[in-house]
Amino acid sequence: MGVDGIPPYFIQWYSNNVAIPGATNQSYRFQPLRYADGTQYKAIVQNDFSSFISSTGTLTVIVDSTSPTLVSAVGGVNRANASVIFSEAMAVTGATNPANYTITNAAGATLAVSSVILSPNGKVATLTTAPQTANAQYWVVVNNVTDRAGIPNPIAANSVASFVATELDLLAGKVLFRAYNAGGNSTAVDAMVNDPLYPNFPDFTQLINGFNSRLASDPANAGFYSGDTRENYGATMVGHFIPPISGDWILYTSADDGSRLFMNTNGPSSAGKVQLLNIIPCCGAFAANPTVPVSLIAGQAYYIEGLYKEGGGGDFMQIAARMVGDGSTLVPIPQSQVGFASKLSIAQQPTNITVIQNHNATFSLVANLAGAGAGSQTYQWQRSTDTTGSVFTNIPAATASSYTLFAGLADDQFQFRAVVSSVLATNTSTAAILTVLADTDGPVLVSVSSAVFLDAITLVWNEVIDAGPVDPANGNYVLKDPA
Ligand SMILES: [Ca+2]
Ligand SMILES: [Ca+2]
Ligand SMILES: [Ca+2]
After folding, report:
1. How many CB atoms lie under 10 A from the CB of residue 297?
2. Do domains 70-166 and 171-341 have the same CATH topology?
3. Which residues, including other chains, have CB under 8 Å from residue 310's CB and lie 6 or more apart?
4. Ligand found nearest the CA of 229
């Protein structure tokens, strides 16, 4: 209700012409029950000079007769919880009773549910379960839960949703800190990102206990990160935020100097990251750098990537998270709510190769790193010490996803493989055999061309030819005048 005139005003709201105790503000807000349907509301407002009666409004209460439904289920990153999402807010009593949930696997075996927490908005129930098997599918059957209507509507009997337990391996309580001698004294994150050393050549790497660069500690350079002594560098923190409660969250950063925050608001994969913050000025407090609210599910891992760039003086980055409406002091995300979840796999193994001697042979593989750190896997190719393939040694500088050698007969039947590594895991590929055939075909002359000054001739062959003898006098090359 809008009021115009000389204050102070004295307001009283009425329900069917009966004064409502305490309803003395310009607006009257309440939770209507179904029997309030048809009730007429009005207010009387007066000041020291006059009094007015507002128009009358009639309340129509639409009764909720719609049953809740099960929207989906999702397994937690620790493979020890799962969340079910309902179409509307659920009554606490039924929704938090573990007996109302049955989880089974494809073989029909039951996965025990020991406790249930309902989100503040009533729509997400997070179940603590017995340990789940990676990549296994589970079905959650829900019974006897109701919505919050005056006459509660039950969910359909045996409502079911399924989820697949995550393949990711979780390193709980850790995030990956990487520092780069990159970008000079610039305070802009771009100076690091555009440097050739980024992202694969950090000069310091450490798993730390949260999204807080102050927790990094270089034994060779005390005070570099716990204090401010390092200058002219950039750094990143990569890992996951694992919210303890389902609902709307806001993340915050505080950094010196420029900083950026990326997040996958849908899950653990770095491939789904979006930039939420790009902070140019140095040193703002958390409260000055909030993200938009993001809706998150308890126990899920959400990919987080923080970048900061130090010019000089102070240097740090911290990330905080708080639920919408939570007024508690902003601090870096607690260690209990962070982790680094990833899974390294070799999608395509190297294959056997047959080449003619004195030709290139290229071995390659495809490795995937799911979750955090995608693309950061490293490679080291190895060669067998003999043709039995029982012992392998590293090949110097063979650190890409493929390896090419110039094959000679001495390489015949040797084996080649790659060791692929991530922060959490090391996978060794299968070994591929190199077969080198003796060259029994003579070389073929592909082209002949003369130099610009007509004082030389270049001959191109279809293969590598032996270097000597080059003495023109021995008759290997004879120039003839066709006339
Ligand atoms: Ca309903
Ligand atoms: Ca510094
Ligand atoms: Ca600084």
Report:
1. 22
2. no
3. 187, 230, 231, 232, 233, 234, 235, 256, 257
4. 2
**Residue 432 CA to ligand 2 centre (angstroms):** 49
Q: How far apart are CA 110 and CA 341, in angstroms?
A: 26
209 alpha carbon to ligand 3 midpoint, in Å?
A: 23
Both structure tokens of 66: 């719609």
139 CA to centre of ligand 1 in angstroms: 24
- The verdict on domain 344-437 having CATH code 2.60.40.10 is yes
State the distance from the centre of ligand 1 to the C-alpha of 90, rounded, in angstroms.
9
Q: What residues does each domain of the chain span? A: 10-58, 70-166, 171-341, 344-437, 445-474
Hey, which residues does 248 pair with through a beta bridge?
295
Q: How far apart are CA 172 and CA 415, in angstroms?
A: 38
Point out the ligand nearest to the CA of residue 309. 3
Architecture of domain 171-341: Sandwich (2.60)
Q: What is the pLDDT of residues 223-253, one digit of tens each?
A: 999 999 999 999 999 999 999 999 999 999 9
Ligand 2 center to residue 285 CA distance, Å? Answer: 18
Give the side-chain half-sphere CA count within 13 A for 308. 26
- What is the CATH class of 70-166? mainly beta
∠ CA(335), CA(338), CA(339), 5° rounding? Answer: 120
Do you find a cis peptide bond into 8, omega within 30 degrees of 0?
yes
Q: Which residues surround ligand 2, an ion (CB under 5 A)?
A: 228, 231, 315
> Considering the entire predicted model, what is its pTM?
0.80
Task: Check residue 473 and give its pLDDT.
Answer: 65
How far, in Å, CA of 69 to CA of 230, rounded?
55
Query: What's the count of helices (H) and strands (E) in the chain, helices before strands?
Result: 2, 35
- Which ligand is closest to the CA of 154, given by its number? 1
Query: Which tens digit of pLDDT belongs to each residue from 31-41?
Result: 767 778 889 99
pLDDT at 468: 67
CB 203 within 8 A of CB 174: no
**DSSP state letters, 198-216:** TTT--SEEEEESSSBGGG-
Burial class of 133 by CB neighbour count within 10 A (0 to 12, 13 to 18, 19+): exposed
Return averaged pLDDT per consecutive 10 residues of the chain, 483 residues in all: 86 94 91 81 91 92 92 98 98 97 97 98 98 98 96 97 97 96 96 94 95 97 95 97 98 97 96 95 92 98 98 96 97 98 96 95 95 87 96 97 96 98 92 96 90 87 76 72 77
Q: How far, in Å, from the CA of 324 to the mean position of ligand 1?
A: 25
Q: Which ligand is nearest to the CA of 65?
A: 1
Cβ–Cβ under 8 Å, residues 341 and 171: yes
